[in-house]
Write a structure and sequence with these properties.
The protein has 12 helices and 2 strands. By secondary structure, it is an all-alpha fold. It has one domain: ABC transporter involved in vitamin B12 uptake, BtuC. The radius of gyration is 19 Å and the shape is globular.
């Protein structure tokens, strides 16, 4: 039972990680807590559903289209909502993303209705046995996608000009501007990256739960908790926090009861902030500065 709960927790933690990293990427470069990150993912799930069921597209044809669409949503939000408010107080930016959250909720309800919708299963549902646990192929696919996306992000931030520019703005936006880095473009790219991550979070979450306007709310909350584990700056810290939350809540649900799952995530963050108020990786961030 323990191995089963751990493997399931890792798979779920991977989904939390995609949301957490999206939150961290935006916060690092804009100092904005993006409350709409989960709704970006929700829009991606609906778009994927339409492409797969409505247009009958192949899964691997639909995925790139969904990614492009959700990245576009991120860019539109940055250009239309966030850029005009770029010099505003953080609380105004916070409420702006809350407004985007409600707009996307309302838009999804207007376009697709409020009823939950089943997402088509695009893989063989037969489970397989690994390390003493019965693992669904869906979980294996989720973990594989998450690892692949993490590798792509690492290469992007490490070796591309745009990724290096994103890191430079994180350290000091004024110095980055003086060095000739196009800050407005890089901030727009930040929101596009958040959309990229959200698209995959929505696509991978949709087969597990029904597609609806509220499908990502719980994932978003866990993603924020995981982001706080990393001090809202550390991508590795957010990923580690997400995996810890996924495993811990699964163990709590398995041994104590399902109603303890959500409580576990918040209990973990309360304990962490009591011991390390700035998150697990805050010291590393200070040293980088």
């Amino acid at each position: 039972m323990f191995a089963q709960l751990v493997t399931d927790g890792i798979a779920v933690g991977g989904l939390y990680a995609l949301t957490a990293v999206g939150v961290v990427v935006v916060f690092r470069n804009t100092r904005t807590i993006n409350l709409a990150q989960g709704d970006f993912a929700m829009m991606g799930a609906f778009i994927a559903l339409i492409l797969l069921k409505g247009f009958g597209l192949n899964y691997y044809v639909a995925v790139p289209l969904v990614v492009i669409a959700v990245m576009g949503i991120g860019v539109i939000v940055e250009r239309v909502v966030m850029r005009p408010l770029a010099d505003s107080d953080w609380l105004i930016l916070f409420h702006a993303t809350l407004g985007v959250y409600f707009i996307l909720h309302g838009l999804s309800g207007w376009l697709w209705g409020r009823d939950t919708k089943a997402f088509p299963i695009t893989f063989d549902p037969t489970p397989i046995e690994m390390v003493g646990a019965i693992v669904s192929k869906g979980h294996l696919i989720n973990v594989s996608w998450t690892i692949g996306i993490g590798l792509v992000l690492y290469l992007f931030f490490r070796y591309t000009k745009q990724g290096i520019a994103l890191r430079a703005i994180t350290d000091d936006p004024e110095v980055a501007r003086l060095m000739g880095i196009p800050v407005h473009f890089i901030v727009m790219l930040t929101w596009a990256v958040a959309g990229f991550l959200a698209a995959f979070a929505g696509i991978l979450t949709a087969p597990i739960i029904y597609v609806s306007a509220y499908m990502m709310d719980d994932v978003l909350i866990k993603g924020y908790v995981a982001a706080v584990f990393g001090g809202l700056y550390s991508i590795p810290g957010a990923i580690l926090g997400a995996l810890m939350i996924g495993v811990a809540e699964n163990l709590a649900g398995g041994y104590l009861g399902s109603h303890y799952k959500t409580v576990t995530a918040f209990a973990m963050i309360v304990v962490l902030l009591s011991v390390r108020p700035h998150g697990l990786f805050a010291i590393q961030k200070r040293r980088e500065i």
